[in-house]
Amino acid sequence: MNMGVKVDALKCIGCMACEMACGYHRDDGFAFLSACIVLYRGREKKNYFGVLLKEEEDLVVFRPEGMEVKKIGATDDEPGEQKEGDASAKPMLLREACDLCEEMEHGPMCVKVCPVDAIIVE
Amino acid sequence: MEYLSSDKILIVDLAAGEISEDELSEDLVAEKIGGAAVNKALYEQHADGDPIVIGTGLLSGTLCPGSSLAVLTGKSPITGKLAHAPITFHVGIELKYAGFDYVVLKGKADKPVFLWIHDGVADVNDASDVWGSDVWQSTDAWRKALGDDLIQTMVIGPAGESGSDAAQVCLNYWPSGDRFGFGRLFGEKNLKGIALRGMGLLEIADAEGFVDKCLEIIPQVKDGALKGKKGVEDICAAMGHADVKEWLAPIVHRHTASYNSPYPTQTFVFLDEDPALKTESAVAEPGFRLDDPDAVLGFKNLGLEAKEACRLMCLCARKGLSAAAVAQLSEKAGKKSAQEIEASLDSLTGTVELAGQGIFSPWCPRSPLFGDFGASDAASWWERRQAVAYVFGIDPMFAVMSPELTEELLLELAGIGTEIEFTSDTLESVVSDLQV
Fold first, then answer.
1. pLDDT in the model for residue A90
2. Cβ-contact B267, B231 below 8 angstroms
């Protein structure tokens, strides 16, 4: 199995530092638009949030109750699919996949900036 | 202003229903740095329109730890003086990414309106349909009508519309650090609120240098005195009220942070759901987000159970009332039961007392939390620390728990990020001007 970013969504505090760091890696400026790691936060009143990660072939959803991997392009009629249809989710499929910040001196930026060590590479 | 900025100031004449834009001049930033100091300059420039000014700090929305802050500035109906309140969570930075560093709101609209700022465009829209609605209903209505659940809002409830001194401008669904009655000021202008959404990009003068500096400081902060602490309960404990943790524990769900804050200042409590639930609740509105230590302590000191206290705080947020003010006024009036307090919410009267000089919101605890800043005079240290946080765009609560975030570091980051030379003399002058 290839190395990849893993997120403990229960540790996550929803600060979006990972999303900004990834955006910086893509755009060389501060922006959220191009990040391949995104906080999903559309159920604010329920305090239900986690992290989405775009990989080469998969969209990985790190939910508080566990991780879910969805093949990009595959039909998915599971309940919950629609729930990720926030404004931030749709463009995910158009974004570049996680490359573990291979050209960055510091390695995966999202891991470096996470203040609660919720993100690791394994 | 080329760097760390959207380069635009939005001027809204509510009376005329007109909108215009100014460029943010580099000279103004070089002199005032940003945030509260630029807000004050814009307030003075537009004083004839009795303005409210909303502005971001120079470092707001960057990778500098704690850089979540925007600032709400106006003449407080409570003190009669110019005052600054924090705009935190993910709301503050949304202004910058929506395309404006500063917004000046002048005059009074002739009918209820809200301001919709999105991707560099601003519109004054009719708010008649939500006038009279509570904060939660209004945010829901705007998100639905504008088609985006991630729209961030600054919004008032019925308390602001009816001119209560305890009214505050709320953020999305939640209470804010507005203790100055700015909710009433919004109501007097027939301004129901502001909706924000944007996907802008901030250029950085020396991007690698800026980010390297941030990466240097992040481990120091997260391994500092705040390590292992979380939520409003640990803040209360640091303020000398350790029993809050046990009181609140049975209903705590999860903790959340404002944008890029290493410390999760917010404690979400479940009131109508199992707090241990990990999956998405089937209950539409299962609980409430706590973020105000004074409100928590105020209701606890009245002898309320945690759940009934949190229900009251939730009700205050829906009505757009400062829960800290409600707790204080309830205590003065001798009201101690949840039923008595709830029954009095629409007819609250009395003078709200504010700690400090009345320049920066007393929402932020007035002594260092967890860490040691080596301050000999706590009161003057607090006023200065707040000034620095409100200028650079650092969450004021985070600022009093992160001695690693020194003034020298913030000046250095500002310089690296903008190619403007900021010196300690610049900051000294800015802080002095804010404290006049």
1. 47
2. yes
